[in-house]
Amino acid sequence: MEIQFSYIVILYLLSAVATAAFALVCRYRWKSPAAPYFTLLFAAATLWNIGDAGEFMNITPAAKFLCVCVEYPGMVIVPVAWFLILLYYTGNSRLITKKTLALFMAVPVFTVAAVVTNPFHHLYYKEIISVLEQGTFVGIYLHGPLFWIFIAYSYGLFLIGLALIIARFWGSHAIYRTQAFLILLATAIPLIANYLYNTGGGPIPHVNFTPLLFALSGLIAAYGISRYQFLSLMPVAHDRVFSTIADGIIVVDDRGDICDTNPAAEHMLGVSPDRLIAQPAREALPGEMGELPGAGPADQPVIREVAINLAGQPQYYEASCMPFDPRIPGRSLYRLIVLRDITRRKQAEAALADASRKLTLLTNITRHDILNQITALDCFLELGAGLAQSEEEKEYIAKEREIIAKIQEQIEFTREYQDLGTKAAQWQDLHSVIARAAEQAGAGNVKVHNAVPAVEVFADPMLEKVFSNLISNALRYGKTITSITFTGDVQDEVFRVVCEDDGEGIAEEDKPRLFTRGFGKHTGFGLFLSREILSITGFTIAETSEPGRGARFEIRIPAGAWRFRKT
After folding, report:
1. 381 and 394 in contact (C-beta within 8 Å)?
2. Apex 471 CA angle, 469 and 477, nearest 5
3. How far is residue 342's CA from residue 348's CA, in Å, rounded to a whole number?
4. pLDDT tens figures, 246-267
């Protein structure tokens, strides 16, 4: 056996060491479902490098052919392993099964068999010639038809993988675009080298640098793994998310036809995909749901609660219809309908409303009976007052009647408090609410200035009671009051409503107890009830006057609970 030494042999051996190291690291250090495919890739590249090193060390065509037989099992696995990596990374790992693996390996196994048996048919290599090039004997391989079948298969896998990468990551998140670029770069370097070799190009004729460059590809992959978490941070396939999400999703194109649905939507509607896809939304979707794509402004989402009868049982859904850009040239916005099952919530709301109705009825009956008994008791006290002889007896009866009056006030408070929060919050015109409260309070000679701008607030329906209490308290306690003013402004996305008067103001020692239940000269429930009403929707109220000046109450309405009224 004639042997030669060349710097190219050293390069192949160094590359074999590098790719073997990458294979070991992928196998034992990195925990990822994709790691075995990387291990397979670099192990195959290692065998390819070793075979090429042996090919260059030998001079005779027969010895070179034996080394070719050694390297080919690695060579044919490289494109398959790389394609498996791309399938996994692009979210198509479901395609990797025992059957598909057998299909992917059919051509490589046939190729290895064709190479080993080539001396009997010469269909893979017509002839192998050893020639001297720049002081080194290199092999010239005259390719037969079976060789080009393998090349077409290998390049086909690379091109399909390239298409998957581009289609999957066009317009995706920046880190995934960087990962995709590194994958494409690691793929392109050995692929270009192989293309140049097969077409007769390259820096040294008849020298295949493809396995050498897999060491560089490994370095790029290692950089991607360490810097961009290539094996641990992998994108989720959108189609799988779409098919497994619990909410129903219906996509309506710009013509009003349904172009896609997920299994959850088909289950919610109780229909099969063939009765939805390519059907007009107005006809295929039940009830008001079919009108959603055309409801409201074209660039604004629409939200509705819809009911669907399935097998005689009503099912309730919150349907959100929103526009999105399909990024298809020549197409306008599509509409995305998202269905969220709120049946249990509606059932709970109905049960709660029924329980609240029954409790309110019981409370009203109990309150009515108690008031009847108090009225009777008051009558007997009135009779007793006429029979009282001493001043002490009259004083006792007077105190008893004061207690009865307090009980009546507290019972009347429960009548108002029981309605608190029983009705859903709603958008209300703040200026109009204050105007109605001022009219009901009967300010008399006191002027009520309503300078609140055109703002709507999302509050409990009892909001008017808050401003009625503020005006009533000002009239009741302000002996010198001549005016009450309401103003409003925006401060750090919070809308402030200020109620101030020009009366005597509030004593400093009383301020900490203003909103305490029972504090005050009248019932002591007005400000307490006002604070409770406001807190339902996240509003706050505070007394912020300065010593020696009139009372000043400030109501703060958080962002999202107020909006300027459209005029």
Report:
1. no
2. 95
3. 10
4. 888 888 887 788 888 888 888 8
Q: What are phi and psi of 311, to 5 degrees?
A: 55, 40
Torsion of the alpha carbons at 130, 134, 135 and 141, rounded to the nearest 10: -10
Kindly list the distances between the CA atom of residue 490 and the CA atoms of 451, 552, 563, in Å, as whole numbers in the listed order: 14, 17, 11
For residue 98, with 0-12 CB atoms within 10 Å meaning exposed, 13-18 middle and 19 or more buried, which class applies? Answer: exposed
In terms of Cα–Cα distance, which of 155, 62, 150, 56 is closest to 112? 150
Closest by alpha carbon to 480, among 510, 460, 504?
A: 504
- Between helix 145-169 and helix 174-198 the angle, nearest 10°, is 160
The per-type count for the chain, helices as H runs and strands as E runs, is 16, 15
pTM confidence score = 0.49
| Pairing between β-strand 455-459 and β-strand 494-501 as defined by DSSP bridges | unpaired
The closest alpha carbon to 286, from 264, 262, 260, 319, belongs to 319
Distance CA(40)–CA(77), nearest Å, equals 8
Q: Cα(437)–Cα(457) distance, rounded to whole angstroms?
A: 16
> CA 464, CA 556: separation in Å to the nearest integer?
16
Q: What is residue 523's predicted lDDT score, i.e. its pLDDT?
A: 47
Nearest to 336 by CA among 296, 295, 305, 301: 301
- Using N-to-C axis directions, what is the helix angle for 210-228 and 61-89, rounded to 10°? 30
In Å, what is the CA distance from 111 to each residue of 93, 118, 124, 191?
26, 10, 8, 19
Closest CA to 336 of 352, 325, 347: 325
Listed in sequence order, the residues at least 6 apart from 104 whose beta carbon sits closer than 8 Å to its beta carbon are: 80, 83, 84
Question: Helix (H, G, I), strand (E, B), or coil: what is residue 449?
Answer: strand
H/E stretch holding 13? helix 7-28
Residue-level pLDDT at 298: 65
- Coil, strand, or helix at residue 81? helix
pLDDT over threshold 90, residue 384: no
Q: Give mean pLDDT, residues 47-76.
A: 86
